[in-house]
């Protein structure tokens, strides 16, 4: 038990922080209850998927600046396809599309040997352009069951469906991968690419696989966006910086090789509930945005400093 606590001290600390902030929210707004939790979970859902995808590429030692654009492509594709091919077929196509976009990102990085940040910055605009070609303005329609999948409670009252969705999908994807040879290769590549290569790890294929997994999570993020609004939105949302901040706050080292998905997902809820608290406190929405941005930049800068100091020692 002691060993478990020591290994997961940061994640458990984030969970305690979230519970404290949840209690603070309840004290400020006594009416904050089951409906409030459901709204919080629904608002956090696309951020959580973007963060999960970002976490995978950071663990492998990279970064993907195109996560929000890939989510937009998947969102509009779902909204355009579902009325004609049906909900299930539309979901399958979107998931395949997301994985393919991620694989393209990773493949370009491996083949060209251009830094991740440069390639994915370029692909941010490419995927954004594709989203606008598919649907120039918000529109389309998604299946009713997809919208219902993130509304209300599941299993028992007070457990938001949106929370169950992110927990189930993240666990179903990441736990088998983490315990497989691919998972070991992802961590090895992120820890020391040269050492991993000398040990026989297929570094190139591992990077492509990691980016493909990121694209798959972005596909779920795009589907969650469509489920929340009922339509497709071609303009990327504010998920890039938020996902990076949540990944860092969740304990994933920017240099790669360390971390998981649970901490970053909890960090998403911490950041979202901070926004809720500021709203209940009557803080001007523009000031709230400034505070959120400052917190995100501060977290990323602090993590960068710690990473470089660790590399020097």
Write structural notes for this entry.
With 313 residues, the chain is mainly α. The chain has a single domain, classed as Orthogonal Bundle (ABC transporter involved in vitamin B12 uptake, BtuC). Helix 3 packs across helix 12, helix 4 packs parallel to helix 6 and helix 5 runs antiparallel to helix 6. The longest helix is centred in the last third of the chain and has 28 residues. It is globular.
Which features characterize this protein?
single chain; mainly alpha; ABC transporter involved in vitamin B12 uptake, BtuC
The rounded Rg comes to 19 Å
So what's the CATH class? Mainly Alpha
Number of strands: 0
**Oligomer kind:** single chain
Which band does the percent of strand residues land in?
A: under 5%
CATH architectural grouping: Orthogonal Bundle
- Look up the CATH topology: ABC transporter involved in vitamin B12 uptake, BtuC
Instruction: Compute the number of structural domains.
Output: 1
Helical proportion, percent range: over 70%
Q: What is the number of helices?
A: 14
Question: Mean pLDDT, nearest integer?
Answer: 88
Let me know the largest β-sheet.
none
Give the low-pLDDT segments. none
Report, as a whole number of angstroms, the end-to-end distance. 31 Å
Backbone structural class = mainly alpha
What is the 3D shape? Answer: globular
H/E series, N to C? HHHHHHHHHHHHHH
